Structures are given as structure tokens and as C-alpha cells.
Automatic annotation (TrEMBL):
This is Branched-chain amino acid ABC transporter permease. InterPro entries: ABC_transp_permease, BCAA_transport_permease. It comes from Massilia cavernae. One of its GO terms (cellular component) is plasma membrane. The keyword Signal does not apply. It comes from the Bacteria. The chain crosses the membrane at residues 15-41, 48-64, 70-87, 99-121, 148-167, 188-219, 225-242, 272-291. GO terms for molecular function: transmembrane transporter activity. Keywords: Amino-acid transport, Cell membrane, Membrane, Transmembrane, Transmembrane helix, Transport. Belongs to the binding-protein-dependent transport system permease family. LivHM subfamily.
Length: 294
């Protein structure tokens, strides 16, 4: 069976690839949206922390024989703790300053992390095996679905939707939002706002670490893997609306699928289609698809 002269299986394979990429876009842009929406910080180091999560998974297996499932829990926790150290020692002094200061600081952290990992491991990349439980593929009739890629999509969607629910629909989320808008009032109710802010930043960067572990078996683990992705992720955040949680999730998945379809019909445009969409959206709706007009 063919669609517009393209075999059905080839079409579905590219759609799956786009959905997998969209899952990473959604999770990384979600972390950025959480940090910006609740802390008002443009975290340019997000890509480097994504890379750090992937490297921690590889190091856990190579040096300590810790399997994928252990590192899927441990690596985001370690990245989150590293983020907490950054927030408590550096970022918290910049909250009342212009966004540019936070952007420059996190860009410097990116260069530092990439330089450290590059000096130890070079740029050629390290291979990370797919866990045995998720190896192989499933025949769906219209396409062959690699089990690990299906797991990536399912895990990403679960984490993204759970994060949205906690922030938008629970009392904890209400405290977080109120703490950023009126910290004095929230503190009057006995809530430790500085601690809440620190943990929020730690959680945001832990999402990047989680995405890094998910990515490790799919692509080579390299010090530059975050730099190759972060610009697209920032475009996703802008299109969805700066600080919009649901906007990041929906837009990330949507743009991944659009990118996959572009590879089928016009491969030369697949590298720039996200930025073309960003330009169109900003011209028609400067606040983004889910952003609030001021």
C-alpha cells in the first residue's frame, strides 16, 4: 500500500521516528517550561544536563555494572542534585536581575560541562546497549515497532502528563505558582519558598537527566549531544508559549511528527522545518500557541 507514492511502511517508520524525537522535544521543553514558568530563568544548560544524564547512565554500566533500570532512577536524581547545587550557589543571586544574566550563567555552565566530558571522553561517542527486556521488535501488521522506541514514547508521555497534572491540578502546584507570584504571602502560611524554588529547579533539570538516559541506547553518548538538540528545544518552547506546561508537551510531539513527515516528502527541509513553523507562529501569535497574550 502506498500513500502519495510512498510505501506505507516507510511512512509509518518516519512517523515513529518523528514521534520518538517529539518525545524528547516534549520532555526537554517541559523542563525548560517548568524552570522558566515558575522561576523565570532561561536555563541554557538544559542540553548539557541532558548529556550529563546520558553519560551517567553509560558510566554506571561501564564502571559499576549498574543496569539501565537502576540508572533510569539514579541518573535523574544525580542530575537533579547537581542542579540544586547550581541553584543554591549561583542562580539564586540572579532571580531579581535581567533574564540575560541567568542565560549567560547557564551558557557558561554548558561550556564547562561539555569541556570536562570532552577532555575525558573525546567527541567520538560511546555506545550504550538497549536493555534486554526492551530488545527486539513487535510486528503491528502495518509496520515493525522497535520495542525500545515504543518504550521511549510511553515513558516520556507518562512523565510529561504526570508533571502537568501535579503543577496544574494539585495543591502543591498551586503553592508553586503562588510562590513565584507572591512569595511573601505564601511564606506567611508557613511554606518555605526558597526550598520550594530550589526543589523545583532540581526537578526541572532532573527531567533533562531522565531524557538523557532514555536517549542513551538510541544515539551515541557524546559531550555535544545536548548542543545539537537544545536550539530545537528552545524553538519548541517559544512555539508552545514560554512557561506553558501543556504547550511544551503538545508542541514537542507535534513538531516531532511534522519533522518526520518532512523527511518523507521533502528531506532537505527536515532540518529547518521547526524554525519555519516558529517564524510563522511568532508572526501570527507572538505569545506562542498556548501562551497568554499580555
Amino acid at each position: 500500500m502506498e500513500i502519495f507514492g510512498i510505501p506505507m511502511q516507510a511512512m509509518m517508520s518516519q512517523l515513529l521516528l518523528g514521534l520518538v524525537n517529539g518525545s524528547f522535544y516534549a520532555m526537554l521543553s517541559l523542563g525548560l517550561a517548568v524552570i522558566f514558568g515558575l522561576l523565570n530563568v532561561i536555563n541554557f544548560s538544559h542540553g548539557a544536563l541532558y548529556m550529563m544524564g546520558a553519560f551517567l547512565a553509560w558510566m554506571g554500566l561501564s564502571y559499576f555494572e549498574l543496569n539501565y533500570w537502576v540508572m533510569l532512577a539514579a541518573a535523574p536524581l544525580l542530575v537533579g542534585l547537581f542542579g540544586i547545587v547550581i541553584e543554591k550557589t549561583m542562580l539564586r543571586w540572579l532571580y531579581k536581575l535581567d533574564h540575560l544574566y541567568g542565560l549567560l550563567l547557564t551558557f557558561g555552565i554548558t561550556l564547562l560541562l561539555e569541556g570536562v566530558f570532552r577532555s575525558f571522553y573525546g567527541v567520538s561517542g560511546q555506545a550504550y546497549p538497549v536493555p534486554d527486556a526492551l530488545s527486539g521488535a513487535t510486528d503491528l501488521g502495518f509496520m515493525i515497532l522497535p520495542n525500545y522506541r515504543g518504550w521511549v514514547v510511553a515513558a516520556s508521555l507518562t512523565v510529561c502528563l504526570a508533571t502537568w497534572y501535579v503543577i496544574e491540578k494539585t495543591k502543591l502546584g498551586a503553592y508553586l505558582r503562588a510562590g513565584t507570584e507572591n512569595p511573601k504571602l505564601v511564606e506567611a502560611f508557613g511554606i518555605n519558598v526558597p526550598l520550594m524554588v530550589t526543589l523545583t529547579y532540581g526537578f526541572g533539570v532532573a527531567l533533562a537527566g531522565f531524557a538523557g538516559v532514555l536517549a542513551a541506547p538510541i544515539i551515541n553518548v557524546t559531550p555535544l549531544m545536548g548542543s545539537n538538540l537544545i536550539i530545537v528545544v528552545f524553538a519548541v518552547v517559544v512555539i508552545g508559549g514560554m512557561g506553558s506546561i501543556m504547550g511544551s508537551i503538545v508542541t514537542g510531539l507535534m513538531l516531532g511528527v511534522i519533522e518526520g513527515l518532512t523527511r518523507v516528502f521533502y528531506p532537505e527541509g527536515s532540518e529547518v522545518v521547526v524554525f519555519v513553523v516558529m517564524v510563522i507562529v511568532l508572526l501570527l501569535r507572538p505569545a506562542g500557541l498556548f501562551g497568554k497574550e499580555k
